């Protein structure tokens, strides 16, 4: 288990990872290792996460379509139909509890109900700074005003539960979008030039922040020694985004910058 899930969306994703993703491996025809990469371990994990994300998003997409057509279909039949449509039934054959989770994810991602007013008020009062970038909330500022951030995105089965919501500024909320893993970010396309005074792009910084979050929640981070929820990890690390300095005068790839962010291989 990568971390302790708090929402049904996380439970479905982590099941996909445990049943399929973690068995994905990247081979080489040379010496049998990937030592030529900056971070062999992180590269292998990237491949596992990408496979899990692809499968999970197919389940969410098909689940949402089927929920609009078959909202009354019993959960076991609903889940089996979704997996069969995506040709995953043989890989993710599971008990009725898993099929129920698939239907719940479809329902949540279709309705996308926001926070109950009481939870929203309590959450926005709980912190005065953005969990992602650390900026202080300013009510009338377009970028700095406090918003509700679902650590596991609402559109991917992230419920509006106390354990899944934190205050985040409008700017970070907009830039993060639906990203639920660092592997969602600009990994393969990163070719950042280290120039004097240049800043790392927001999409890359958020991806690195999510890498720190997942590492902390897995029990391998700065403050934890056993798996925790994403919220416990986020509060322990807040702010997730770091001010990174990279060597100037050359281009940097993602896994090189990841080392600067203190993320273990």
Give your account of this protein's structure:
- There is one protein chain.
- The chain is mainly α and 265 residues long.
- 44% of the residues lie in helices and 5% in strands.
- The longest helix is centred in the first third of the chain and has 30 residues, at 40-69.
- The two termini are 17 Å apart.
Q: Which short descriptors sum up this protein?
A:
single chain; 265 residues; mainly alpha; two-stranded antiparallel sheet; 9 helices; globular
Largest sheet: 2 strands, antiparallel
Structural class: mainly alpha
Number of helical stretches of at least 4 residues = 9
- What's the total number of strands? 4
Distance between the termini: 17 Å
Strand order of the largest sheet: 1-2
Name the average pLDDT. Answer: 91
Give the CA-based shape.
globular
User: What portion of residues belong to β-strands?
Assistant: 5-15%
Q: What is the string of helix and strand elements?
A: HHHHHEEHEHHEH
Give me the Rg, rounded: 19 Å
Helical content stands at 40-55%
Return residue spans where pLDDT drops below 50 for at least 5 consecutive residues.
Answer: none
């Amino acid at each position: 288990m990568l971390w302790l899930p708090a929402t049904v969306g996380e439970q479905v994703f982590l099941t996909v990872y445990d049943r399929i993703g973690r068995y994905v491996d990247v081979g080489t025809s040379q010496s049998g290792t990937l030592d030529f990469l900056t971070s062999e371990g992180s590269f292998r994990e990237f491949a596992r996460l990408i496979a899990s994300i692809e499968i999970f998003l197919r389940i969410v997409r098909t689940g949402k379509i089927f929920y609009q057509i078959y909202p009354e279909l019993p959960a076991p039949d609903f889940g089996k139909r979704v997996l069969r449509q995506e040709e995953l039934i043989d890989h993710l054959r599971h008990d009725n509890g898993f099929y129920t989770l698939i239907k719940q994810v479809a329902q949540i991602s279709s309705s996308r109900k926001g926070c109950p007013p009481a939870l929203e008020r309590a959450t926005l009062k709980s912190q005065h700074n953005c969990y992602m970038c650390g900026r202080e909330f300013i009510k009338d500022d377009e970028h700095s005003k406090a918003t509700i951030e679902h650590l596991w995105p609402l559109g991917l089965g992230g419920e509006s539960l106390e354990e899944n919501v934190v205050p985040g500024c409008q700017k970070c909320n907009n830039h993060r979008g639906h990203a639920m893993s660092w592997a969602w970010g600009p990994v393969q396309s990163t070719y950042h030039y280290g120039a004097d005074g240049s800043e790392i792009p927001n999409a890359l910084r958020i991806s690195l922040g999510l890498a720190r979050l997942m590492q902390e929640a897995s029990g391998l981070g700065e403050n934890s020694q056993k798996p925790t929820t994403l919220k416990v990890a986020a509060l322990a690390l807040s702010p997730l985004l770091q001010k990174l300095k990279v060597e100037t005068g050359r281009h940097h790839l993602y896994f090189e910058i990841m080392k600067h962010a203190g993320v273990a291989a």
